[in-house]
Amino acid sequence: MKLDLSHLLAEPLDARCKGFPLAAPAMALREIGRQGWNVLRGDVPFPVAIVRRGAMRQNSAWMREFTKATGVRIAPHGKTTMCPQIFARQIDDGAWGITVANVRQLDLCAAIGVKRVIVANQVLAHGDVARLATLLKSDPALEVFFLADSLEQLAMVDAEARRQEIGRPLTALLEIGYEGGRTGVRSPTDALTLARAIAATPTVALAGIECYEGLMVSNSDRDAGHVDALLESVRLVAMACDAAGLFSGPEVILSAGGSAAFDIVARDLPLRMSKPVTTVLRSGCYITHDSGTYERLFERVRARSGEPWQSEPGLTPALEVWSQVQSRPERELAILTMGRRDVSFDIDLPRPIKRFRAGQRAPEAVPTAWQVVKLNDQHAYLRVPAEADLKVGDLLGCGISHPCTTFDKWQLLLEVDDDYTVVEGLRTFF
Amino acid sequence: MKLDLSHLLAEPLDARCKGFPLAAPAMALREIGRQGWNVLRGDVPFPVAIVRRGAMRQNSAWMREFTKATGVRIAPHGKTTMCPQIFARQIDDGAWGITVANVRQLDLCAAIGVKRVIVANQVLAHGDVARLATLLKSDPALEVFFLADSLEQLAMVDAEARRQEIGRPLTALLEIGYEGGRTGVRSPTDALTLARAIAATPTVALAGIECYEGLMVSNSDRDAGHVDALLESVRLVAMACDAAGLFSGPEVILSAGGSAAFDIVARDLPLRMSKPVTTVLRSGCYITHDSGTYERLFERVRARSGEPWQSEPGLTPALEVWSQVQSRPERELAILTMGRRDVSFDIDLPRPIKRFRAGQRAPEAVPTAWQVVKLNDQHAYLRVPAEADLKVGDLLGCGISHPCTTFDKWQLLLEVDDDYTVVEGLRTFF
After folding, report:
1. What is the pLDDT of residue A308?
2. A22 closest CB neighbour out of B127, B215, B393
3. Is the terminal CB of chain A with fewer CB neighbours within 10 Å at N or C?
4. How confident is the model at residue A1 (pLDDT cuts 50, 70, 90)?
5. Which 8-state DSSP code applies to residue B43?
């Protein structure tokens, strides 16, 4: 699978796009990496979101190794970055496909030539089913799997699919949930009822079983037990469906795996059935990792995975948001030119990691005592010791916690080399 | 001042833009309101952010009346909507100018012909000052005011302004802050020192005094006292600067006023000095209002404002995010197709207000017992009583709390009439 980004790379961007230098002329996306802009030199406006190329490559290689070693496939969740340029690298890395959260995101994948997509959600709106049908009719090589968890949804999908006359069945993954969770069938009995209903619906084929364990994980010793219990439900339902001959197609897909406990999925989900089984992880955050929640959770992934995963380099944070000290109105307070609109705040506040002052050769690490304690829409409050060496005009680089909610605040992120020179503009579609 | 939106309205949008129908061809922004799309009929994908035209017009008229009655001017904070089409309506309503949060936002205003802009922030990066200089040199009619709160910032601005040879001074508003607050000079002594330094800097002129009282307001009886104390500092510093002859220009600008206590500002900030004084509010949220924090705070505005503000219709929520029930996996739980990426969650979670089911004539109000209790990136958890009449496929309209953080999640919002037919596409630039 080779993606075609030529149309995207030729599209012009201009300074209305956050991250694009104010004085630069409009230019095609592909030109951005050829300008020699340097973040530390102030060639770009602040705040700016950057992705460190070296770190992203390391993460890419790590996941390639991990899936190879464990024998599972990955369809990275594209909703994390919504960046076709990153999707293309993930496909080049050997990804089985791309996962998305809705049909609009699927549409973007199809437009650049992704041939295998999991829509990890209930598709049901007639406009969504109609669009899915159009995509499938226009490209016989495109495979799309979506989640099903109720008879009502199945009826809605069936009604629209019959109107559309697609010529092949839609392919569904039955979603297994749990009490107190999100979507997904709550009991094996209901799961089997739905599986039989899907198998009896000519417009929809049962392609596999799915769950999402990520919300059960809370960085605790009990995580593995909770995840195992859910995976056990998946395996039970899968075996029952297999025994009843409800799966269509030459193989069965079993899919789970966010970015918090994908190691447990890789270890415990694979199953032998009467047909070949493809086990598909959907981790999205590994590609940039973070400096907060996933950094903490990854230590548990390593601890559970044994040697050599503990001794070799692991995932490393690639995403930073840089802003400028616009005021230091009190000795212990500095105000930064970034806010809720620029950086994740749904799990942790950003974590200051580097300071750069004009004239210096390279950024310096900052003391852990420097902490972002509050955000407004366009401002961050940085608490520092009274004697902290921090001046109005200094640049501050922050790590973030939860890449998904930083990516979605930027239509353009800047990929940089080790010297913070921009080597590519990364365009997102949220 | 008449803004020119022709370039913007001619720009094409396509289905990669959230809110744009998946099957519709790419079209110019101005065409969107001519398609007859109806939200309730499902002509648009969900989630979708809509602005009710009638409500926005009512808010527009209310603020026009309020500023007329109180004799103050308004430069609505553009960072709320970042929507040039809304800026144009605000200018048509008689706004004195537009307020923005940074030079990139100023750039957008200048591009459509706004002639008076307050950058309600410390400008200091050399790239920002350089861009400001370019804009001022290219349009002699453009007036831009930015905030100053430190000698370090002043030195940075002066250095770049001298390099740029603008031919007229930059115009600064000295920002008064308070202990524990955000930006702004903390003491009258420091304020006077900075005012004298500005007056002694040929590249920068002191045009007025500014503060931001919005962060002092907590929906309590003490709000007015806190705000008054800050406004008193502004008046004291303004009088001292006036007495010392530090203000340049034919008039003095006094500015304050978010969307929470602008009535206090309008009442208490105006001042007689040796030059004419223009008092400028900067409220941004009034234009769409909300169904949460500003709805609560507005009741205090009315209570403080006396008759007739209490008896006549006030501001009314115009902004709604509609999503679809994708699953009802437990009797007391429904999962909606919207999440953190679609709706504000920094102050309150979205509030369900209307339900629509295919075949109905109009949306129905929903019981207050229906509550959004949690958001994931792409999902909302709606807690309902077990017997609630809510089905998979139903559409749910939610009010939001804090318009700024909903607008910034949408590059395209749909303006609708009373029947939820789309009458205009509203483009934002975050």
Report:
1. 85
2. B127
3. N
4. confident
5. -
- Chain B CA closest to residue A182: B335
What would the two tokens of residue A145 be? 């799997």
Q: In the predicted model, is pLDDT for residue A220 greater than 90? A: yes
How far is B8 from B109, CA to CA, in rounded Å? 12
Q: From CA A315, how far away is CA A243, in angstroms rounded?
A: 40
List, in order, residues 6 or more apart from B345 with CB less than 8 Å away: A346, B375, B405
Tell me B126's DSSP state: H
Instruction: Please tell me whether the interface predicted TM-score (ipTM) of this complex is above 0.90.
Output: yes
HEC letters along chain A: CCCCCHHHHHCEECCCCCCCCCCCCCEEHHHHHHCCCECCCCCCCCCEEEEEHHHHHHHHHHHHHHHHHHCCEECCECCCCCCHHHHHHHHHCCCCCEEECCHHHHHHHHHCCCCEEEEEEECCCHHHHHHHHHHHHHCCCCEEEEEECCHHHHHHHHHHHHHHCCCCCEEEEEEECCCCCCCCECCHHHHHHHHHHHHCCCCEEEEEEEECCHHHCCCCCCHHHHHHHHHHHHHHHHHHHHHCCCCCCCCEEEECCCCCCHHHHHHHCCCCCCCCEEEEECCCHHHCCCCCHHHHHHHHHHHHHCCCCCCCCCCCCCEEEEEEEEEEEECCEEEECCCCCCCCCCCCCCEEEEEECCCCCCCEECCCCCEEEEECCCCEEEECCCCCCCCCCCEEEEECCCCHHHHCCCCEEEEECCCCEEEEEEECCC
Paired with A396 in beta bridges are A323, A355
pLDDT digits 0-9 by tens, A74-85 = 999 999 999 999
Sort out which chain B residues have CB atoms less than 8 A from A38's CB and list them.
Answer: none
What percentage of chain B carries pLDDT values higher than 90? 98
Under 8 Å CB-to-CB from B308, ≥6 apart: which residues?
Answer: none
Task: Transcribe B135-171 into DSSP letters.
Answer: HHHH-TT-EEEEEE--HHHHHHHHHHHHHHT-SS-EE
Structure tokens at B200: 């002694």
Using DSSP, state whether B62 is helix, strand or coil. helix
- What is the tens place of the pLDDT at every residue in A174-200? 999 999 999 999 999 999 999 999 999
Q: Is B164 on the interface with A (CB under 8 A)?
A: no
Chain B (234-253) residues lying within 8 Å, Cβ to Cβ, of chain A: none
Q: How far out from the chain centre does Cα A4 lie?
A: 21
Residue count (chain A): 430
Query: Which residues from A are below 8 Å from B108, CB to CB?
Result: 16
- What is residue B307's predicted lDDT score, i.e. its pLDDT? 87
CB-based burial of residue B166 (10 Å sphere; 0-12 exposed, 13-18 middle, 19+ buried)?
middle
Which amino acid appears at position B97 of this protein? G
As a whole number of angstroms, the distance between CA B209 and CA A420 comes to 38
CB hemisphere CA count around B315 (13 angstroms): 29
Contacts of residue A311, defined as CB under 8 A and 6 or more positions apart, other chains included, come to none
Confidence class of residue B1 from pLDDT cuts 50, 70 and 90? Answer: confident
Cα-Cα-Cα-Cα torsion A86, A92, A93, A97, nearest 10 degrees, comes to: 80
3-state SS assignment for residue B295: helix
Q: How far A306 CA lies from chain B's nearest CA (Å)?
A: 31
* Angle ∠(B401,B402,B407) on CA atoms, nearest 5: 115
In this structure, are strands B380-383 and A364-365 parallel, antiparallel, or unpaired? unpaired
The angle that helices A126-138 and A151-164 make with each other, rounded to 10 degrees, is: 50
Q: Residue A150: its chain B contacts at CB < 8 A? A: 327-329, 392
Q: Check if A35 contacts B (Cβ < 8 Å).
A: no
Query: What count of residues does chain B have?
Result: 430
CA distance A194 to A172: 11
Band the pLDDT of B308: cuts 50, 70, 90.
confident
B6 Cβ neighbours under 8 A, 6+ residues apart: none
